[in-house]
Amino acid sequence: MHRIVRTVLSIAPRTALVLALVGATTASADTLQVSQWGLGYPTINDAIDDALDGDTIAVEIGIYNEDVDFDGKNLTVISVSGPEVTTILGNSMAVRIDSGENPDAVLDGFTISSYGSYGLYVNAASPTVQYCTVADVSGYATYVSGGGSVTFLENVYEDNSYTY
What we know:
Pectate Lyase C-like, globular, seven-stranded mixed sheet, 2 helices
């Protein structure tokens, strides 16, 4: 499977001139696609495994039965079509961010649900969680501990057992 789906260069014009003059190469961020219909990666974790800091993982419509772990990477995991049609359904910790991730680790636009202990588990990290719906979690909807400073923007909580 190819890692690069789309390359985005993000450099200022002045920086581009300097790099061109010294013959340096530019860094780029990749967009990795996740789809249950055979386009790109079959699971979010498969894409995270191949992703590098700064990459974006674009997730197509579907219910993803997996416990997603950012694995210490500062990347954006975004639903292409929003929480109404894109769900992470976990068995233990639906989304785990606990390896020192910073605000550049972004979760955007999912419904997060879990049969297990946690919907969203954050420990010793400072991610950004935005435009998500955390619903029907049998344990803690959101659990944050161990320092860090989580940024929550425009999230909705529905029918959960606990929020901590």
